[in-house]
Amino acid sequence: MSFLVTPEKLQKQREQQRRAQERAAAKQKAKLACPEYRIKQLEKQRERQERQRAKASEKARMRPPVAKPLVAKKPLRSKGMAGKSRNKTEMSLHDRMAALGGICCINKGLIEPHTGSPVSIHHIHGRTSPEAHLYVLPLCQWHHDTPMGLDNQLNDKYQFVFPLHAKGADGGKVRWEEVNGSQISLLIEVHKLINATPKEIPSELQNLTTG
After folding, report:
1. CATH number for the domain including 101?
2. Where in this protein does the record put region Disordered (predicted)?
3. Which tens digits make up the pLDDT trace of 88-117?
4. Which of 28, 111, 170, 208 has the fewest CB atoms within 10 Å, measured from its CB?
5. Global confidence as pTM
6. In this structure, how many other beta carbons lie within 10 angstroms of the beta carbon of residue 84?
7. Same domain, 54 and 93
8. Is the separation of the CB atoms in 137 and 182 below 8 Å?
């Protein structure tokens, strides 16, 4: 017994496939148009890259050391913090971020924007990654790397203020982002508050900030 596919049935199957493909394409397009979805995808990509770098570093660490010929050591020169120097665009960006004030303090209503409160320029992906000096946030010392301390009279009132860079049991990235939002979303917010120019925005975030 043979089953013959008629032209009408074949056409119907093709039409069903076409509609399914159109629905899938529309769903994907809607996702890509959502800033929150794109931010999450960028963060996932960064996490994958960090895991790959960590894996490569671990492999390199496990390799047996290779004997190198002895050479005369040159005197070391202090270069300050690791990473390349900032260019004029990056220095201008950091100055304007500093004039804006700490973004977390602004969002919590602790200060008004552009009040010039003291800030640290926090590097989101470190100082040696591509466009490192563009991936930065203006943070007050308590949102950045300094715990208020148990003896601080403001500690009980501002329990939601703690450092991104953990100091012992105080702070840490996971809890910090739960309270303040992801660092990338905060950076996009800062770009809008200071009217950042395209040169001041990392290439991955161009469409998210200007779109």
Report:
1. 3.30.40.190
2. 1-63
3. 999 999 999 999 999 999 999 989 998 877
4. 28
5. 0.64
6. 10
7. no
8. no
Q: Are 171 and 162 in contact (CB under 8 A)?
A: yes
Same domain, 52 and 130: no
Specify which residues 120 forms β-bridges with.
139
Alpha carbon distances (Å) from 71 to 67, 82, 198? 12, 24, 46
Using the 3D structure, point to which of 20, 39, 59 is the last residue of a domain. 59
3-state secondary structure of 103: helix
Average pLDDT, the chain: 83
Phi, psi of 119 (to 5 degrees): -135, 160
Nearest to 184 by CA among 130, 141, 135, 145: 135
Residue among 149, 175, 151 at smallest CA distance from 164:
175
